[in-house]
């Protein structure tokens, strides 16, 4: 089953659970299967400075799209702050590994590669010179500004729009799309009608 069909099926299961009043089960499914891209939850993570959780949450929805400019830009905003946070906590060994594995690859697809690279260099320089707090202040207003920057990229990720809609809407459309998908799959496995021995072939003319 491809991702689109799986997503549609999970959404239908979610709607069924809610219609039966099984809200705890529906919430658990929503959380585990990442059915809803909750921007309000992301905002709370940004404001609280919970960069690891924000990174994990957004990365789950961006999987397979990391090389697109919009996804690279959005992920870079979070991962730069996570890198800075690790440097601030003097966890430099982990920070350098994270930079190589998770931050640097985003620069290739970033829409403003030069500016993003300059920010990374500035973070490393400020850490080496003990000016990290001055170069990257960790105040709520700065975290809010990061969220605004993040949204500028995030809103360009077309594949996330369907995840942002309320899960109870467009159920008829979801059911129809799923039905069409399964119907096409069945057609692929239906053999062509074979000619019965002793009978003439069906005429194609009218």
TrEMBL record:
This is Uncharacterized protein. Residues 184-206 are annotated as: Disordered. InterPro entries: LisH (IPR006594).
């Amino acid at each position: 089953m491809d991702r689109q069909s799986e997503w549609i099926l999970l959404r239908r299961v979610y709607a069924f659970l809610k219609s039966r009043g099984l809200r705890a089960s529906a919430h658990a499914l929503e959380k585990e299967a990442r059915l809803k891209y909750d921007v309000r939850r992301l905002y709370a993570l940004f404001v609280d400075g919970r960069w690891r959780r924000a990174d994990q949450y957004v990365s789950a929805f961006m999987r397979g799209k990391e090389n697109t400019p919009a996804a690279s830009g959005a992920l870079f905003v979070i991962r730069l702050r996570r890198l800075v946070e690790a440097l601030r906590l003097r966890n430099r060994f982990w920070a350098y590994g994270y930079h190589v594995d998770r931050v640097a690859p985003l620069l290739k697809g970033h829409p403003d590669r030069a500016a993003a690279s300059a920010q990374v260099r500035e973070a490393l320089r400020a850490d080496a010179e003990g000016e990290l707090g001055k170069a990257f202040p960790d105040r709520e207003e700065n975290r809010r500004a990061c969220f605004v920057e993040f949204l500028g990229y995030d809103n360009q990720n077309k594949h996330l729009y369907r995840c942002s809609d309320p899960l109870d809407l467009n159920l008829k459309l979801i059911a129809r799309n799923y039905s069409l998908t399964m119907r096409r799959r069945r057609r692929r496995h239906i053999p062509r009608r074979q000619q019965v021995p002793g009978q003439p072939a069906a005429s194609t003319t009218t």
